[in-house]
Amino acid sequence: MHYISTRGAPARLDFVEAMLSGLARDGGLYVPYSWPRLSPATIAGFAGRPYAEVAVEVIKPFVGSAIAEVDLARIAHEAYGSFRHPAVAPLVQLGDNLFVLELFHGPTLAFKDLAMQLVARLMDHVLKQRGERTTIVVATSGDTGGAAVEAFRGRDQVDVVALYPHGRISDVQRRMMTTPTDDNVHSIAVEGTFDDCQALVKAMFNHHAFRDRVRLSGVNSINWGRIVAQAVYYFTAAVALGAPHRRIAFTVPTGNFGDVYAGYVASKMGLPVDRLVVATNVNDILARTLATGDYETRQVVATSSPSMDIQVSSNFERLLYETCGRDAAKVNALMGSLAQSGRFSVPGEALKEMRTLFSADRADEQEVDAEIRAWMKEASYCADPHTAVALAVAEKETRDPKVPMVVLSTAHPAKFPDAVKAACGVEPGLPDWLSDLPNKAERFTVLPADQAKIEQFVASASRAARDGAGV
Ligand SMILES: Cc1ncc(COP(=O)(O)O)c(C=O)c1O
Ligand SMILES: N[C@@H](CCOP(=O)(O)O)C(=O)O
Fold first, then answer.
1. What residue's CA is closest to ligand 1, atom 15?
2. Which residues are reported to carry the modification N6-(pyridoxal phosphate)lysine (predicted)?
3. What separation in Å is there between the alpha carbon of 213 and the centre of ligand 1?
4. What integer is the mean pLDDT of 350-363?
5. How many Å apart are CA 81 and CA 106, to the nearest integer?
6. How confident is the model at residue 471 (pLDDT cuts 50, 70, 90)?
């Protein structure tokens, strides 16, 4: 199994190289050269098996011989052993053929843990084998940063720098990044938006001298390792509801398009996915794109679902590549137009193909509040604002009542206590093991969205840079 860039660079990388690289050197994203397929019998065989075992079966065709299966299995068992629910990603039924897939039982209470706990251990394993160090710079609108800090803190092979938009994330999200005391984790409050943070990370990857000096890596969903680990829960949820013998639909709260793209990966592998519903808040670039074919960035608006306050959705490039017939020149032209003018038009055939599997809608702030209130009242179910965006959109969707709809619940409501309380009057509390989070001292640096200044900070935090300089 090897990986190629969506922008056409000739290099072909194995899984480990693609995972350590993060972004391709031509600015593209790695995708598998071909799609592995799982037979219906293999998928049916996932029923009743522990999450970690299913993870190994789904991920191993993408890893090939780059990591020994025995190591992959050991690492998966360790990673998912850190979850507080025995099922790891349990399903909760809310209505007739309406289910919530709870992805927030990991250490930082968000779906990012499902991939990050695995990817951190895989990276650590291969870096130790090679005797190498790396520096990870991660852009976060709140959750990826905390998950990365938690998964990598204290690891000798890796330094992590998290860039978050100053004042635009919840207190709990910020504290998860800023309170750990380990020397290898650092947080920068960037004076800008998440899109600025993500653009800075990509610019650092495209600055090759800097990239090589700090041995830069990334664990945003530009990293293929993240995507493939997120594909696993589509399988566990679908099989629990009767796949592969019936089709299953998913509604996914969406920002960077990583999570819903993982559903697309599952469908490419043979899972009978009926529909992937892209749910956005008022930062609705993806909903607009699927409706009109015009991908057009606008000013980002702060909402009660801050992790989805995103305009440039990185992983949409992977879907474009696939639906443009894997034509890297076309993708290059479209991405060039985005960089130049902040917009591009999705080619007609590509849009048609996208619409065969994807639909999309948005929920505004009033709808999100009403959704949180209604589920609390009707079912005593407390949804976080991101989950509420998806629940609201799932309700608007024209559904075949015979097809189960699974709504991905991507964060624990206690990460957004103020927003939830304002919507329904109930303030969700942190679990016991995190109850001292509000009392811990914080450590972060405020910097402008200036590439040179951020690079300077990252270089000074990077032990890989110091190793390379012979210090
Ligand atoms: C809680 C939560 N929900 C939804 C999303 C959107 O996921 P994606 O960026 O993969 O589309 C994010 C951020 O990634 C998030 O943190
Ligand atoms: N919503 C994310 C933004 C980054 O997304 P990623 O999946 O590409 O890491 C966050 O909460 O940080």
1. 307
2. 112
3. 31
4. 98
5. 9
6. very low
